[in-house]
């Protein structure tokens, strides 16, 4: 059965959202959040259509939209350990969104965000900035040599 116009638009926007999620974004970037909201609305409309796709396909779309929504919520958390924990509970999509993808984009985004949160936690724990240099506010300690 041919995909409806709504389903094609949903897949197109879903691909764009996955690409945006994979990119490094500013904290004041608002587009992805609005796009994910639009995806939710489109998904609800698709579920109500008479000629809707198979339930497995709709479930996969739902999984990917829920993943993106959860990822946005995790980014709003304050500490990197909370972000990492929230990221563990996210379930990326199982099937690639387009035929060009070998690995689902949501899985790639999931791995990237896990690595980013792990790096942030490491920086917090070791007192280093993103370049790996010690933070300026950390006291410089010199080794004490005990002479006997």
TrEMBL record:
Species name: Rhinolophus ferrumequinum
Annotated membrane topology: Single-pass type IV membrane protein
GO biological process, one term: retrograde vesicle-mediated transport, Golgi to endoplasmic reticulum
Matches recorded under PANTHER family: USE1-LIKE PROTEIN, VESICLE TRANSPORT PROTEIN USE1
Location of the protein in the cell: Endoplasmic reticulum membrane
This protein's record includes keyword Protein transport: yes
Statement: the UniProt record of this protein carries the keyword Transport: yes
Keywords: Endoplasmic reticulum, ER-Golgi transport, Membrane, Protein transport, Transmembrane, Transmembrane helix, Transport
One of the record's GO molecular function terms: SNAP receptor activity
GO cellular component, one term: endoplasmic reticulum membrane
Family assignment from sequence similarity: Belongs to the USE1 family.
Protein name: Vesicle transport protein USE1
